[in-house]
Design a protein that fits this description.
Number of helices: 11
Distance between the termini: 28 Å
CATH class: Alpha Beta
Shape: elongated
Structural class: alpha/beta
CATH topology: Rossmann fold
Number of domains: 1
């Protein structure tokens, strides 16, 4: 059975930057890459009274154009020593991309994201794909500043919050580190905002903060002990997890972040959870997956099978 990674392409250099991660993809037991492009005709054409025949002709020309484009880009996949599949679909981009993922082990996607102080969430297509995908998604976010042209995975950031769900990323991160000979950088950020403090004191109790710090340090020591002789560092940070992790990336650069995400459900909830969102706006690619005990997918299953912690 082929192990497949899917790369959505939209004709931009940004989407094609996913090719830089093909050596990593190959190291993770992927042998086939599926290139997917979606022709989306504008709704305004239908509203303007354009005849269906003209719409159909435009769609066919668009599909032919994308098929030719994928055929040209397939060479980069073959040069990386991987088999290639090409699919052109017509419709809503994220829906058509997700429709091609039933047998996919990982999605690799690049995105612009959106700018503005209050606009941290990703563009709608990438956001939907990340949020709704059942398999892990490797994301090249809008602020990635490492040299993808000479991409070399030597350091993996693994954010943990002490929950079993977050710890499901541990085996996957360790497995990738073993495959690539990379160092693990394990970080837990301690947020004080959710802790009740004594209003009479006007501040957090010193004893409470010390107890919390001791608990986090003990937790990180337990995680570190599970790793045996593997090269790893552990760091405790205080502050909002999303912002603390971005700051940590500035001070201690990494080549990849591995983390779990719950995503969001509901028609009106397209934005990702706050911590995942911040990670996707960091300086390194992020591998996200939803924690699950049922049908975790071949990539996660392989990690769980190979790594016993």
């Amino acid at each position: 059975m082929a192990h497949i990674a899917l790369i959505p392409l939209d004709g931009t250099e940004l989407s094609e930057s996913a090719f830089a991660l093909l050596p990593l993809v190959k190291k993770l037991n992927i042998d086939t890459v599926r290139l997917v492009s979606v022709w989306k005709s504008g709704d305004e054409e239908s509203e303007a009274g354009v005849e269906q025949k003209q719409l159909d002709e435009a769609t066919e020309k668009g599909r032919a154009h994308l098929a030719s484009y994928l055929d040209r880009k397939a060479g980069a996949v073959r040069e990386a020593g991987l088999e290639v599949e090409m699919i052109v679909r017509h419709g809503t981009p994220h829906e058509e991309i997700l429709a091609c993922t039933d047998d996919v082990d990982m999605i690799v996607i690049a995105t612009h994201g959106r700018s503005g102080i209050a606009r941290w969430w990703l563009g709608s297509t990438a956001d939907h794909v990340i949020k709704e995908s059942a398999c892990p998604v490797l994301v090249i976010g809008p602020n990635v500043d490492i040299d993808l042209g000479t991409y070399n995975l030597s350091r993996i950031l693994l954010p943990l919050d002490g929950s079993p769900a977050a710890e499901q990323a541990l085996q996957l991160a360790v497995w990738i580190a073993d495959q690539m000979g990379a160092e693990l950088d394990i970080v837990r950020a301690m947020s004080l905002t959710n802790v009740t403090y004594d209003p009479g004191m006007g501040m957090y109790s010193g004893e409470l903060i010390t107890a919390m710090e001791d608990s986090v340090k003990a937790y990180l020591q337990e995680v570190s002990a599970k790793l045996g002789s593997r090269k790893a560092t552990t760091t405790m940070m205080i502050g909002s997890p999303g912002e603390a992790l971005l700051e940590h990336q500035k001070e201690t650069p990494c080549d990849l972040v591995v983390a779990t995400t719950h995503g969001r459900t509901g028609v009106k909830r397209a934005a990702l959870g706050s911590v995942s969102d911040r990670l996707l706006h960091g300086s390194a690619p992020v591998l996200l997956f939803r924690p699950s005990d049922e049908e975790p997918g071949d990539l996660v299953a392989a990690a769980r099978s190979a790594i016993q912690l």
